[in-house]
Write a structure and sequence with these properties.
Elements: H1 5-25, H2 29-40, E1 44-56, E2 59-70, E3 76-80, E4 90-94, E5 100-109, E6 114-118, E7 141-146, E8 155-165, H3 166-169, E9 171-174, E10 186-188, E11 194-199, E12 221-225, H4 226-236, E13 249-251, E14 263-266, H5 271-275, E15 282-286, E16 289-290, H6 295-301, E17 309-316, E18 319-326, E19 337-338, E20 341-343, H7 360-364, H8 375-378, E21 392-395, H9 400-403, E22 409-415, E23 418-419, H10 423-430, E24 438-444, E25 451-457, E26 459-460, H11 470-488, H12 492-495, E27 515-522, E28 526-533, E29 542-546, H13 554-568, E30 570-576, H14 588-601, E31 610-613, H15 618-626, E32 634-637, H16 644-649, E33 656-659, H17 667-682, H18 696-707
Length: 710
């Protein structure tokens, strides 16, 4: 039977009324955001900091306003470490009626950049409510609150949660605007519950309280998940600052995508050594986390505190072993050791890619390089050492090796009971010996089969950079030519012609007498100018990358470097970006691509590759020498220093920094340089003192040779 039309109309009307009623009850996103802000604003306070060493956009300020989050009825407030850096004279919470309440700094969490404040007796606030980290979702609304412009009202910026577990697992990411206006304030959801505390963080590593400040209002902001922040508060209430936990080990450079996470060195007296870790151990797990690639070790440790106990599952000799390491706030100062061994370079055999292959791993890690990632090739040995050859080393007069009775030149066959057949293996077996380390060396006189074993004890590398004797340079050159003839099966006289044919893209230019000049284009990045001796070189050329050449004429550069180029067989590489402007951190891929082109055009000794920088390029120099896969092991800094935060962030162990003997620095500049030298030595860098009687290019040339020494 058909339904009566009146009944049908009544049913449709009822549905329409129900739908309209439901829509009327569902608030719009704007209404939800307003309600969320009202719900949370009673727990958001305005904080004024007086004195200290605060900075905004590089300018020092004596008074700073920031935001805090009330977390308890007893007057506990969390804010960003950025707000209270530099031991301020006073901290106040400002109320809407313009009155102030004094706040005490209880303790600082240097890992997550949080500070716990205490206002005695509390105040007219209501603590924020927290959202569990497990309920956070990428794409959900995120509202950044601040109480900066006025104590009477909050400011808000709306976005989403764009990523979780960022900054080595310490933070969530949002595209809501985050800046000094709301640092220390909450990031809330649509219910008004706090999902995190807004802080500046840097993806580069530890940094300082202001690291990451340059990202503000960029659409990339970070917040410590509220659950993690409250767990940190449990420790901070005891009044002790929380610092990064250090373990004291270095991994073998097997490539970013390698599954072989192998210990290359253990800092004597550090947590790893105390726990029983040894060189050659393969790390399988840290805590309950499986370690599948080298970067996961750093990611795990950067979120841990000094004093944390970490179970370490390793594989040694085919068997698994569980060790326990207690992380430390500081590592024992370990000075790089010196044995007095100078390995003689062996050129690549016919058909190999030469030294250019050594740069592939580093090139793949730089943004905008355009180089494809090749996980399988990351662990392959460098082509320059792929042909088995005598591992010939010269013995430095007066060194531990010479004092132990080794002759002037030997072929090394084993280190600490492990055989070797390439320079790469020799260096891997030795690692970076610390001063006082004992090494067992098996060796034989060149051309004989009689193997002897000698025990050597490393000494601390000299703080003075001496000029190598002419006799040592001559023996080094002669031996390199002899080994080249033996490995490549060529006549040694022909092998002395060191320069390969000029690449098609090279443009010959008029050149001063005795110096050969080439230009090589680096597509989409710029070009490099190459200056090397026009005479037949006895040694594989050592690349010296001049980062600070902008504004100098080539004539002036040549007048400074000509003698060093010829004496130490250098090839001076001058990178020029498309803008023909001073180099910045963004030009890292230009430098590496240019160095790759240089290594392809010449038989280069990349063990001696260094960069030379002024103060403006010191950050770029750090980037280039501290990359784990970089063949560039040294940076010479003229007329400047290295920022302390860059030293803390980067891995300088096994690297060297050379400062010129400039006497015209201001007292402040000299203090900054001395501070950077002190910090560099603490992290295991070799920082020799230059001789003021020699020119900086001559000192740099000599230094490239000593960098080859073990």
């Amino acid at each position: 039977m058909a339904t009566p039309r009146r009944v049908l109309f009544l049913g449709m009307a009822t549905c329409l009324i129900a739908t309209l009623s439901a829509n009327a009850q569902t608030p719009s996103p704007g209404q939800q955001i307003k309600a969320a802000c009202r719900n949370a604003e009673t727990g958001v306070v305005r904080i004024r900091v007086i004195g200290g060493q605060q900075q905004i956009d590089g300018d020092e300020v004596n008074s700073l306003v920031t935001t805090g989050v009330v977390i308890s009825d007893t007057g506990e407030i969390l804010t960003s470490e950025f707000a209270v850096q530099g031991n301020p004279d006073a901290v106040f919470v400002e109320l809407p009626d313009s009155s102030r309440l004094a706040a005490k700094i209880v303790a600082t969490d240097h890992v997550r950049r949080l500070v716990l404040l205490q206002v005695n007796g509390g105040g007219p606030w209501r603590p924020v409510q927290a959202t569990a980290k497990s309920k956070l979702l990428v794409g959900q609304y995120a509202i950044a609150l601040g109480r900066f412009y006025s104590a009477e009202s909050v400011s808000c910026s709306v976005g989403i949660v764009s990523a979780l577990n960022r900054i080595h697992g310490r933070a969530l990411q949002t595209d809501a605007k985050v800046s000094p206006v709301n640092y220390g304030g909450p990031l809330i959801d649509l219910s008004g519950h706090a999902i995190g505390i807004l802080v500046p963080l840097s993806p580069r590593g530890r940094g300082t309280a202001g690291s990451g400040l340059e990202w503000y209002d960029s659409g990339i902001g970070f917040a410590v998940p509220m659950q993690d922040a409250l767990e940190s508060v449990e420790r901070l209430r005891k009044g002790n600052d929380l610092r990064h936990g250090l373990i004291g080990l270095r991994l073998e450079e097997t490539g970013a995508f390698s599954s072989q996470v192998v210990v290359a060195d253990v800092r004597p007296g550090g947590p790893a050594a105390t726990a029983g870790l040894e060189r050659g151990d393969r790390i399988l797990k840290l805590g309950d986390r499986s370690i599948e690639r080298p970067g996961m070790v750093e990611e795990f440790l950067l979120a841990r505190y000094a004093g944390d106990t970490v179970p370490v599952l390793i594989e040694r000799g085919g068997a698994q072993k569980l060790l326990t390491a207690t992380l430390a706030a500081e590592l024992p100062v370990s000075f790089p050791g010196f044995l007095g061994l100078l390995p003689v370079p062996v050129p690549p055999g016919p058909g190999t890619g030469g030294g250019a292959d050594l740069l592939q791993r580093m090139l793949q890690g730089l943004p905008g390089s355009g180089a494809p990632r090749k996980p399988d090739s990351a662990t392959a040995p460098a082509a320059a050492d792929s042909t088995p050859a005598p591992v010939r080393v010269l013995i430095i007069p007066g060194s531990p090796a010479a004092m132990a009775g080794l002759p002037a030149a030997v072929d090394v066959v084993a280190v600490n009971g492990r055989s070797i057949n390439s320079e790469n293996q020799l260096r891997a077996r030795l690692g970076i010996p610390a001063a006082d380390a004992v090494v067992r060396l098996k060796w034989q006189n060149p051309g004989t089969d009689n193997v002897e074993e000698t025990e050597l004890q490393a000494v601390r590398r000299s703080d003075r950079l001496e000029t190598p004797a002419a006799e040592l340079l001559n023996v080094f050159s002669t031996t390199a030519v002899e080994l080249a003839a033996k490995v490549q099966g060529k006549d040694s006289n022909k092998d002395q012609q060191n320069a390969a044919p000029t690449p098609d893209e090279a443009v010959n230019q008029p050149q001063p007498a005795g110096i050969r000049r080439q230009e090589i284009d680096v597509p989409e990045k710029g070009r490099v100018i190459l200056l090397e001796s026009g005479s037949s070189a006895q040694l594989p050329l050592a690349p010296v990358v001049l980062l600070s050449a902008h504004g100098q004429s080539e004539e002036r550069i040549l007048s400074s470097w000509k003698a060093a180029i010829e004496r130490y067989s250098l090839v001076l590489m001058i990178p020029v970006n498309p803008e023909n402007a001073a180099l910045t951190d963004a030009d890292g891929s230009l430098v590496v691509s240019g160095l790759q082109a240089t290594a392809a055009a010449f038989k280069c000794d990349l063990r001696r590759a260094v960069v030379v920088a002024g103060n403006e390029q010191s950050s770029l120099a750090c980037q280039l020498i501290t990359d784990a896969a970089s063949p560039i092991k040294g940076a010479a800094v003229s007329g400047g220093w290295i920022d302390e935060t860059a030293i803390e962030d980067a891995g300088f162990s096994g690297r060297s920094v050379l400062f010129d003997a400039v006497g015209n620095l201001s007292p402040t500049q000299a203090a900054l340089r001395n501070r950077s030298i002190e910090q560099l030595k603490k992290v295991g860098a070799w920082v020799p003192e230059a001789d003021s009687e020699q020119t900086f290019p001559e000192i740099t040339g000599a230094w490239t040779l000593w960098l080859r020494c073990l």
